[in-house]
Automatic annotation (TrEMBL), chain A:
Its main location: membrane. GO terms for cellular component: plasma membrane. It is found in: Cell membrane. It comes from Jannaschia pohangensis. The chain crosses the membrane at residues 12-34, 40-61, 68-87, 99-120, 127-144, 176-194, 225-244, 250-271, 278-301, 307-328. This is Amino acid/amide ABC transporter membrane protein 2, HAAT family. It holds the Pfam family BPD_transp_2. It is a multi-pass membrane protein. It comes from the Bacteria. Keywords: Cell membrane, Membrane, Transmembrane, Transmembrane helix. One of its GO terms (molecular function) is branched-chain amino acid transmembrane transporter activity.
TrEMBL record, chain B:
InterPro entries: AAA+_ATPase, ABC_AA/LPS_Transport, ABC_transporter-like_ATP-bd, BCA_ABC_TP_C, P-loop_NTPase. The lineage of its organism: Bacteria, Pseudomonadati, Pseudomonadota, Alphaproteobacteria, Rhodobacterales. Residues 20-260 form the ABC transporter domain. PROSITE patterns: ABC_TRANSPORTER_2. One of its GO terms (biological process) is D-alanine transmembrane transport. CDD domains: ABC_Mj1267_LivG_branched. GO terms for cellular component: plasma membrane. It comes from Jannaschia pohangensis. Keywords: ATP-binding, Nucleotide-binding, Transport. One of its GO terms (molecular function) is L-isoleucine transmembrane transporter activity. This is Amino acid/amide ABC transporter ATP-binding protein 1, HAAT family.
Length: 351, 263
C-alpha cells in the first residue's frame, strides 16, 4: 500500500514533466539506428513498438476502465485486413484505393466494429467481459478463415506494403524503425494526455465505482462504450503497421495465440501506466528474437521459447501484480525510503 | 385510475411545486417489504430528518429516490417531474444529490479529482478529451468545495489513503457539487468524532436556504438540530411526521425510539 503513496500526483500540465531519465531514453531511441543492426531495428524494436501500440489499447481499457478486453488483437487485425482489402495487395480481391482513403476507412471500420462489440461487452463485468470478448475474437478468426468474398479465406492477403510516401521505402529497416517509433510515441502521448482529461478521469471513476459515477450524473454505459471506440484507434494503428511489417495478413494474424500474447504483454509490462505495454512488448520481442539461440546454447530445443515466456509471465504475475512497472515502483519506494528527507540523497549506513 | 385522475395529479403537483413527492412507493426484496406505501412530500428548501431503527428502510427509501433501485410500486416526482423510471444520472442532473452510508468514493483518484468529477458530472463536456486548463472554472469550483469542507491540505492525496472521517467529509463535498437543490444525506455523522460532528452541523446549517435536504441520522440530538421537520420510519412505513418538538414529545415515539438508549 505504501508503494502507491510515494508516486507524485499527476498534475494538470499539458503533458507530464519530462525527467532526465526520460530525456535519455528519448535520445537513445532517436540514435538507435546508429547503434543497432537491421535485424534489431526491424524485428525487435519495430515489432515491439507495434505490439506495444496494440497492447496500449488494452492498457487504456483495462488500466483506466477496468475492462479486460481480449478483442484488441482482433480490432488490429480487422484494420490490417481493411488496408489489404481497400488498398493494394497480391490478391485480386483488393480494391486498390489510394492510401489516404484506404487507411482512414480501415480505421473507421475497425472503430465501428469495436464500438458494437464494446456495446455488448460493457454489460458484463470481470471474467464475463473476458469470456465474451474471447468468444468474439475466436469467432472472428474462424469467420475470416472461411470467408472468401471479404477476407480471402485461409490465404488472406499478401504483398500488403506501406505507400511509398515522400519517395521513401517505409519497409526498409531504418525508415520502418522511425515510422513505428513515431506511431508508438504519438499513441503513447495521446493516451497519457487523455488519461487526465474529463473523459479519462471519468473512465477511472467508472473503474473505481460505477454506481457512484451514475449518482454524480454520468452515463456509465456510454462512457465504457466510448472507451472501446477510443482504444480501437490505437489497436488499428498497430494492426496496420503489423500487416505492413509482415507484408501479409491472414487468419493467423487474429488467431488466439496472438490474442493472448497481447494480454501477456500488457500485464507483464503493467496496466497502470501507458508505458507498461511498451516495456512488456520489448521484453516479449527480445525473448522471441534471442530465446531460441540461448535455449540452443543450453542444448534445449529452440522451440521452447514460448515456455520461457510463459515462465516469465508466471513469475511477473506472482511477484508483482502490477507488472514490471510495479517492480520499478517498489524499487523507487525502497530507494526514497533510504533517502534523507532533507537532501534527497542516499543516507549513509551510520546515519 | 382514469385519465382525468392522472392529468389532475400532474397539474396538482406541478402547481404545488414540491421538491420531492413520493406517492404509494413500495419496494419488495423478494418476500421482504423494505418499503410499504410511502407517501412523502418535501418542499423546496425544506430540511427533513428521517429517523428509524436499523432495517426500517431508510437507505432503501434513498435508493428509490435516486434511482439506484426502481420501486416495485408507486411514483416519484422530483421538482414536479415524474422521474419514476429515470436512470440515476438523469435525476442527478435535475439537482438531486446524495451521500452514502458507507463511503462510495474513487479510491484510485486524488481528492481534487473526485470533486472535479462530481462537478463535471452535472455539466457539459463529460466526454471531453481536452485536459482542464489552468484557469478551468470547474477545477476552481472543485477547489472551493474542498475548502468548504476544510480539506485543502489533502487536495492531492489519493482517496484510498484518507482516514475514515476525511472520507465522510469528502462525501459531503461531492454532494455539494454542481447546483444541488435537494440533497439526501445517509447518516453523515456516523463514526465521526465530536469535533468532526460539530463541523458537520456547521456545514449543514450554513447551506444556502434554497438547498433542501433529507438527512438520515441515528443521533437524535444532531437530527433535531439540523432539521425543520421529522419523519419517523418503522418496518418500511412512515408512521409519524411533525416538527422536531412534536416528535420529541410524542409518547409513541419516545416509547419506540427514545425508550432505548436515549431515555
Ligand atoms: N439490496 C437489497 N437486497 C435485499 N434486501 C435488502 C437490500 N437492501 C436492503 N435490504 C433489506 O431491506 C430492509 C431495509 O434496509 P435499509 O438498508 O433500507 O435499512 P436502514 O433503515 O437504512 O437501516 P440502517 O439504519 O441499518 O442503515 C432491511 O431488512 C434490509 O435487509
Ligand atoms: Mg441505512
Amino acid at each position: 500500500m505504501a508503494v502507491t503513496d510515494t508516486r507524485p500526483q499527476p498534475s494538470y500540465q499539458w503533458i507530464e514533466h519530462i525527467s532526465a531519465t526520460n530525456f535519455g531514453i528519448i535520445a537513445l531511441a532517436l540514435i538507435m539506428p546508429v547503434l543497432a543492426n537491421d535485424f534489431i531495428l526491424f524485428q525487435v524494436f519495430g515489432w515491439a513498438f507495434i505490439l506495444g501500440t496494440i497492447a496500449l489499447s488494452l492498457q487504456f481499457l483495462a488500466g483506466y476502465g477496468g475492462m479486460v478486453s481480449l478483442l484488441q488483437m482482433t480490432v488490429a487485425g480487422l484494420a490490417g485486413y481493411g488496408v489489404a482489402l481497400f488498398g493494394d495487395s497480391g490478391a485480386a480481391l483488393s480494391l486498390g484505393w489510394p492510401w489516404w482513403l484506404n487507411i482512414p476507412v480501415a480505421i473507421i471500420v475497425a472503430g465501428i466494429f469495436a464500438t458494437l462489440v464494446g456495446a455488448l461487452a460493457v454489460r458484463t463485468e470481470g471474467i464475463y467481459t473476458i469470456m465474451i470478448t474471447l468468444a468474439i475474437a475466436s469467432a472472428f478468426f474462424y469467420f475470416a478463415r472461411q470467408n472468401y468474398p471479404i477476407f480471402n479465406g485461409y490465404t488472406g492477403f499478401n504483398l500488403v506494403i506501406p505507400p511509398q510516401l515522400f519517395g521513401v521505402d517505409w519497409r526498409q529497416p531504418v525508415p520502418f524503425y522511425y515510422l513505428t517509433l513515431g506511431a508508438a510515441t504519438l499513441s503513447f502521448i495521446c493516451v497519457l494526455y487523455v488519461s487526465r482529461s474529463p473523459f479519462g478521469l471519468a473512465l477511472q471513476g467508472v473503474r473505481d465505482n460505477p454506481r457512484r459515477m451514475a449518482a454524480l450524473g454520468f452515463n456509465v454505459t456510454m462512457h465504457r462504450i466510448y472507451a472501446y471506440t477510443f482504444a480501437s484507434f490505437f489497436a488499428s494503428i498497430g494492426g496496420i503497421l503489423l500487416v505492413w511489417q509482415n507484408a501479409q495478413v491472414s487468419p493467423g494474424t487474429v488467431g488466439l495465440p496472438n490474442v493472448f500474447d497481447i494480454l501477456v504483454i500488457a500485464v507483464v509490462g503493467g496496466l497502470r501506466h501507458p508505458i507498461g505495454p511498451f516495456i512488456g512488448a520489448l521484453i516479449y520481442c527480445v525473448l522471441r528474437a534471442f530465446a531460441p539461440d540461448i535455449l540452443l546454447a543450453f542444448g534445449l530445443s529452440g522451440e521452447r521459447f514460448k515456455m520461457l515466456i510463459g515462465l516469465g509471465f508466471l513469475a511477473i504475475v506472482f511477484w508483482s501484480p502490477d507488472g514490471v512497472l510495479g517492480l520499478w515502483d517498489r524499487w523507487k519506494a525502497r530507494r526514497s525510503a533510504n533517502a534523507d528527507p532533507l537532501t534527497g540523497k542516499a543516507r549513509g549506513g551510520s546515519a | 385510475m382514469t385519465m382525468t385522475d392522472t392529468a389532475a395529479d400532474r397539474l396538482g403537483s406541478a402547481s404545488s411545486g414540491n421538491a420531492l413527492e413520493l406517492r404509494g412507493v413500495t419496494k419488495l426484496f423478494g418476500a421482504l417489504a423494505a418499503l410499504t406505501d410511502i407517501n412523502l412530500t418535501v418542499r423546496p428548501g425544506e430540511r427533513r430528518a428521517v429517523l428509524g431503527s436499523n432495517g426500517a428502510g431508510k437507505t432503501t427509501l434513498f435508493n428509490c429516490v435516486t434511482g439506484d433501485f426502481l420501486p416495485t410500486n408507486g411514483s416519484i416526482r422530483l421538482f414536479g417531474e415524474d422521474v419514476t423510471s429515470f436512470p440515476p444520472q438523469e435525476r442527478i442532473r435535475r439537482g438531486l444529490r446524495r451521500t452514502y452510508q458507507i463511503s462510495l468514493l474513487f479510491g484510485g483518484l486524488s481528492v481534487i479529482d473526485n470533486v472535479y468529477l462530481a462537478c463535471r458530472g452535472v455539466s457539459r463536456g463529460r466526454f471531453s478529451m481536452l485536459r482542464p486548463r489552468r484557469n478551468d472554472t470547474l477545477m476552481a469550483r472543485a477547489a472551493e468545495l474542498i475548502e468548504a469542507v476544510h480539506m485543502t491540505p489533502l487536495k492531492d492525496t489519493m482517496v484510498r489513503n484518507l482516514a475514515y472521517g476525511q472520507q465522510r467529509q469528502l462525501e459531503i463535498a461531492l454532494a455539494l457539487s454542481g447546483a444541488p437543490r435537494l440533497i439526501l444525506f445517509d447518516e453523515p455523522a456516523a463514526g465521526l468524532s465530536p469535533t468532526e460532528r460539530s463541523e458537520l452541523i456547521a456545514i449543514l446549517m450554513g447551506l444556502p436556504g434554497h438547498i433542501g435536504y433529507i438527512i438520515i441520522e441515528h443521533d437524535m440530538d444532531v437530527a433535531l438540530r439540523v432539521a425543520t421537520s421529522v419523519s419517523m420510519m418503522h418496518n418500511g412505513r412512515i408512521f409519524k411526521e411533525g416538527s422536531p418538538e412534536e416528535i420529541e414529545n410524542d409518547p409513541e415515539v419516545q416509547e419506540l425510539y427514545l425508550g432505548g438508549g436515549h431515555g
